[in-house]
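Kindly inspect the following:
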Amino acid sequence: MTDPQEVFQLALQRYREAVHAKDAAALVSLYDEDVSVFDTWGAWSLRGREAWHKLVADWFGSLGEERVAVEFDQVASVDTADLVVGHAFVTFAAFSPQGERLRWLTNRMTLALRRHGEDWKIVHEHTSVPIEHATLKAILQRG
C-alpha cells in the first residue's frame, strides 16, 4: 500500500480495533522497534516498543471489564515516498460491559509512519492536550 491517505487511515483503524479489543500485542505491533512516544499520561517520554508495550499493557489491565472506543476526528496527513505524518483529534470513551458510556476524553495526536519494505510502522507518536492558563489544568474535552 503506497497511498499515504490509505496508510494513515489503516493505521488509525488498526489502532482503534486493538484498543477496543484490549490487545496490547496488536496495538504495539503497529510501532517501530525504536519508536519514540510522547504520551499525555505518566512518563515524559518513552523509547522503544518494549517500554511502550508495558505502558499499554498496564492501561488495558487497569480497565477491568470496561472497553474503550476510539474515534478520530479532523484527520489529515502529509507524505513523502517513505514517510507519512498525520494528525487528528482522538476521543477515548470507556464503556461498561452493558454498553453504558462511563467517561471520555479527547487528545490531540500526531503519528509519523515510516515505510519498512511493503509495511509501515509508527516511528513517533505525540499526544497532547491544551492546558488552561490560569489553573494549569489539562483540558480533556474539546469545546
